[in-house]
Amino acid sequence: MATNAQQGAMGRQIATFEELISEHGKRTASACRLASGKAALYRDILDEFMPVYERSVEADAQRAAKELVQIRAVLDGYEAAIEQWQKRQVDTADEFNLLEVLGLIHKEGRHSMMLAWLLDRDIMHYGTHAQGCLGFRLFLEELKLPVEYAGTRYCVSREVSGEESRVDIEIAARGRFLIHIENKIWSGEGSNQTRREWSDMQRRAEALDIPAIAGKVRIHGLFLTPEGVSARTPNFQAVSWRQVARVLDRFAVEARPPDVKLFASHYARTLRRFIIEETQEEEPDRGQETI
Fold it and tell me: For residue 112, what are the CA distances in angstroms to 36, 107, 173?
């Protein structure tokens, strides 16, 4: 038989257990009431949300229908404009560009060749336009360089190498003047490039017996870029392809052969469309160095 002490311990355990059961029941009832309240709250939210959602869907559908009408009107207008433009192109062909067809637009060396063609006076060399020094004279006037250079027996050369560099175009007359043109369109100036070119120009001028006349500059370095960016060496004059385009415009007016006039005008438009306008949006890659 259990002793009185054991009976008392069992009674206390039973009482504790009953208390736990009672407390658990209270907490469970409270949780149920809380869950029931939250469920009711969620139902209320959903009841309010659905009408708002339906109105939103309807408003979106109405707005989409309205925008669709507007988009269709824009597309119809665009198609009509394209059709009219295509009809005009039958007579004008504004989009035609010979250099683009030949894939020469983005070849920097080809533009140096075109410039040499414009500046050369020798019909047996680059100057097949047969207009003598006309292009060079207009070039000198545009850049405010001595126009009398055009009256000399000057020579135009390309890719002239010196001890430290290679220049794109050289225009020189022995004993009279020296001009070097560094053409940059998509490439950037190389490491100390114009400094090295200027050093080579001094040596080249000495070899050509170009005198150092006080007060008269006979050696000219030109740094040619789409927008007339300055070279890192101050001895070089900044020149823009926009200026070259203006020279070509004047050349097209004053030249006599129809094919030459047409070609010069066509190339001026090429520069404005593909070189000047394109490079306004993109800076030259200064990381690409050339010699």
Answer: 85, 9, 20
Q: What's the pLDDT tens digit per position in 177-187?
A: 999 999 998 88
E strand map for the chain:
155-161, 166-173, 177-183, 219-225, 236-240
Q: Is 204 exposed, middle or buried (0-12, 13-18, 19+ CB in 10 A)?
A: buried
User: For the chain, what is the radius of gyration of the CA atoms?
Assistant: 42
Q: pLDDT of 217-247, one tens digit each?
A: 799 999 999 999 999 999 999 999 999 999 9
Whether residue 125 contacts residue 169, with contact meaning beta carbons closer than 8 Å, is answered with no
Q: What is the pTM of this model?
A: 0.67
Mean pLDDT confidence for 21-37? 66
Quick check: 144 and 138 in contact, CB under 8 A?
A: no
- ∠118-111-198 over CA atoms, to 5°? 85
Pairwise CA distance, residues 219 & 155, whole Å: 15
For residue 187, give the DSSP letter.
B
Q: Residue 6: how many CA atoms within 13 Å on its side-chain side?
A: 3
